[in-house]
Amino acid sequence: MIRSTSSSIISLENLPDEILLLIYRYLSSIDILFSFYGLNTRLNETISEIYCHLFLGDVSYKRFRYICSSIIPQIGYNVCSLIVSDRSIEKLSKIFLEYFDGRISLIFPKLKCLTLLEVTTDVLSSFIDNLNNLKDLIQLNIYSLNRNNIDTDGIQILLNKIFSANNSRLNTICYDHESIPLTVIDQNNHLLYSNLKKLEIFLERLHDLHHLLTRLPQIEIFHVGLQYESSEFNHTKEYSPVESLIELNLISLGYSFNFNELTSILNRTKNIEKLSIKIDNTDDLHLIDGNYFNSFLSSFHLKQFNYLVKYISDSSINQKEILSTWKQFSQQFDCLIDDDQNNIILYSIPIHFSHIGISTRFFTNISSINNHFHNIQSLRLYGVPHIISEIFPILTKCKKIKCLDFNGGDDDIVLKLRKETHLCKLVHLTHLLLLRSSVDIKSFQELLQSSPNLFDLNIHSKPLHSLLDQQSICHLLGQQITNLYIYWPRSDTL
To answer: Contact 172/198 with Cβ under 8 angstroms?
Structure first.
């Protein structure tokens, strides 16, 4: 009950639906179910949208068991999308399986999309074993999968299970690059996954990509991340074309990539209309030569082309000369060059990739950088100065950023600022990773004040001690942060 200013008592049931819906916005779906479901028919109706799209995570074991035993069996028929998360509270997924093992198709008959967050490989395998005869389930999302007692052969078996889940009814699978990379073993009798139309996957090596493409005869949209060593790729083997593919998003992570390897993939995808390529590391000059690139792509009928490549050279790079080779493309290109003049990041304008990792040494002349970064949602910065306000001009160009990762520090770097820059409002920023061992208090406070929706903080234990000595920062942390992860190196003692 709520007491009004005139001392009368207002019953919760007397509030209009609009006010109830506003109250729900400040609660998690778990809290809403636990607190409001079953009180009366009207309240059940006002939260019906909540259990159509059900998130199961961030809850105590006792409360979760109650929800699994007493609430989900009553509302499961209405659930269209289901998220099961072990991100904040471990083993919730295992408790979920305790209650619904062998009964998922009975409890959730209208399920269309299942998402699993930070589960282990054995839990994922158990979930997939339960996905049978769900006539509406067509999408499976797997984010941040953790390895648990599984070898290469086991990963191959798991991949086959994922693609064949729900009696091969899935047409969309998302497996992100925060998960363990998968491998595809070349077999004489290839299994075909004709059901898949859209796939996002993280693979170990380039040959895994080629083997997988052979097994996807109906694939239309394919986003793939590669964590591989190029020396293991067989350049002489020929692969069949993939006629159905119209959109390809290719990202290489960490290892060197060359033009021949890229063309080995593109030669199989001649019908492609939308092409996005992001290469994190290369020393192949052909990949930053627009003339060379254009001669190859001229036979394609591309409607959209997005490109970003980090090139490493032993000698200085002529920035203007590189850009002049890309003038024949319909879109514009620009590049960043580091202060040593031998590393370059070439990209199409604007940057269409939602996640990038970049050294702050590419931003030493910050005043010359144009506003091409507004689509970036996740930014990892390497070599952040001790005074983190030095990189605020970079953040002002990433106003849609949701996740910010200060990965490592560099006390020697100096950015060329014309004047002191104050940070704009970062209303989308919700996750901050700050794992360097020292932080400037004033800059950190301004970052908190400029990020009103920040709730998830990963921080090194050393700067946290000094930050907690500041009453103003303690107040901000208390108001905003609901998920706090403290990195405590083993060498540190209490």
So the answer is: yes
